[in-house]
Amino acid sequence: MKSDIVIVGGGIMGSAAAYFIAARSFSGSICVIEPDNTYAKASTPAGAGGIRRLMSRPENIRMSQFSIDFYADFQSVMATEDNPADIEFRRQGYLFLTDADGVASLTANYETQCNEGVPADLLDVDTLRALFPSVGTKNVALACHSPQDGWIDPHAALMGFRKKASSLGVTYVKDRVAGFETSGVSVKRAMLESGETISGDIFINTAGAWVDDIAAMTGAKLPVVPMCRVQHFWRCSQEIEPLPLIKDDSGAFFRPEGDGFAGGRPSWEVQPGFTWDIDRGYFANYFEDTVWELLANMVPKFQTIKLERSWAGHYAQNLFDGNMIIGTYSKGHDNLLTACGFSGHGIMHAPAVGRALSELVIDGEFQTLDLSRMGFARVLDDKPYSETGIK
Ligand SMILES: Cc1cc2nc3c(=O)[nH]c(=O)nc-3n(C[C@H](O)[C@H](O)[C@H](O)COP(=O)(O)OP(=O)(O)OC[C@H]3O[C@@H](n4cnc5c(N)ncnc54)[C@H](O)[C@@H]3O)c2cc1C
Questions:
Q1: Which of 6, 91, 146, 360 would bridge with 120, disulfide CB 3.0–4.6 Å?
Q2: How many angstroms separate the CA atoms of 344 and 347, rounded?
Q3: Residue among 36, 41, 44 whose CB has most ligand 1 atoms within 8 A, to mutate
Q4: Would you place residue 25 in the very low, low, confident or very high pLDDT band (cuts 50, 70, 90)?
Q5: Residue nearest to atom 52 of ligand 1 (CA)
Q6: Is 192 near ligand 1, meaning CB less than 6 Å away?
């Protein structure tokens, strides 16, 4: 088989890239290789779907701005005959809470956000209490609220990209990349688990938490590992006003979900690797021992909640600086790109990243948003470009 563009991994990133390339009337062929059409182990359906502009790096804020506008119009732009593309975008806001130690950073980031035109407000404790009476203020010195941010259904967004891309002629191949054939500075073909091969002009590695396995196939190394992140769903019998997605310095976060709440707290202590059995080992009592108290600090009424279920997903964690890597990465291979290492930001940035990849592929360089600081060169040069404050 031959395809001009070969995308490895059809999660939200690979599918957004396929859509944006196809939507620009790219005349060549595009195929996406994805082994699991149920996405049972992919990060995308496991994500909380939070989309926010409360970030510290201008590139990340700008990617969120484009992406949030794109998600606002998603249904009208992405609907197809067989898919209404309803991503259940709820603009219920984002709220960051910080203690006294985090005030300087929250304030500095707020100033950056204002300079970028983000609609956000700093809230002192009295204003916070008046706006959200259920939020606990015992440890809070300052809050930042972005009322026009919110959350979407990530699986619906992934299917929206996938179905629209398919309707524009993109082929999804149900298979797994097992290796590459290279020649000089070029990748020539992908070898698939089934024994098939696909030759291509440009290859894009969007294999999420598996991205470094794909990198190893051309002798490259990406500092991106799977990190287990457990999420929980609970109900609270007490009355609580409509809340935004709330996150504090500990990394704990939650948002309303149906008639309950979903959230958790990333465990920075856990070893990298895939963990699917969360009933044993490190995560066995994680909610009771760690998460519950943090949630009850944020909303004291959460002292009496009923935990309904917990599930595992995985960040593709960039151990180098926590931010994404986009562009070429495999020494000597000019036609092999990646977009990876999104940690907890991939859903909110997928439209901007899909667009950026389409520019790299079609125009050879970024056109709309200069993401060159997010390239692999910073890893080689040992120049981390991290988010600051609440991540
Ligand atoms: C608990 C949790 C909460 C999160 N919350 C948020 C949030 O609120 N907001 C936000 O923006 N982000 C959030 N994220 C992060 C977000 O989910 C990810 O950044 C995003 O989904 C990454 O998309 P992806 O397409 O890169 O990866 P994935 O969705 O994992 O897709 C990668 C695909 O590659 C495929 N693949 C693997 N190996 C191969 C191979 N050899 N050949 C071909 N294909 C292969 C896999 O089958 C998979 O489908 C969260 C993540 C988790 C786990």
A1: 146
A2: 8
A3: 44
A4: confident
A5: 47
A6: no
- Of 195, 155, 157, 200, whose CA–CA distance to 32 is shortest? 200
Token representation of residue 54: 């409360």
Say yes or no: CB of residue 36 within 6 Å of ligand 1.
yes
Q: Is the CB of 375 under 6 A from ligand 1?
A: no
Integer CA distances (angstroms), 85 to 34, 74, 164, 356, in order: 21, 7, 9, 22
CB of 43 closer than 6 angstroms to any ligand 1 atom: yes
Q: Say which residue the tokens 């894009």 belong to.
A: 204
Q: How many CA atoms lie within 13 A of 257 on its CB side?
A: 21
Strands 186-192 and 142-146: unpaired
Whether the CB of 229 sits within 6 Å of ligand 1: yes
Say how many Å lie between the first and final Cα of the chain, rounded.
Answer: 42
Reading the block at residue 326, the tokens are: 């986009």
Region 285-291: mean pLDDT is 95
What's the predicted TM-score (pTM) here? 0.97
DSSP 46-73: HS--EE----SSHHHHHHHHHHHHHHHT
Supply the pLDDT for residue 332: 84
Tens of pLDDT, residue by residue over 49-83, are: 999 999 999 999 999 999 999 999 999 999 999 99
**How far is the C-alpha of 359 from the C-alpha of 175, rounded, in Å?**
27
- Alpha-carbon distance of 162 to 10, in angstroms, equals 8
Q: Over the chain, what is the mean pLDDT? A: 97
Measured CA to CA, the distance from residue 345 to residue 44 in angstroms comes to 11
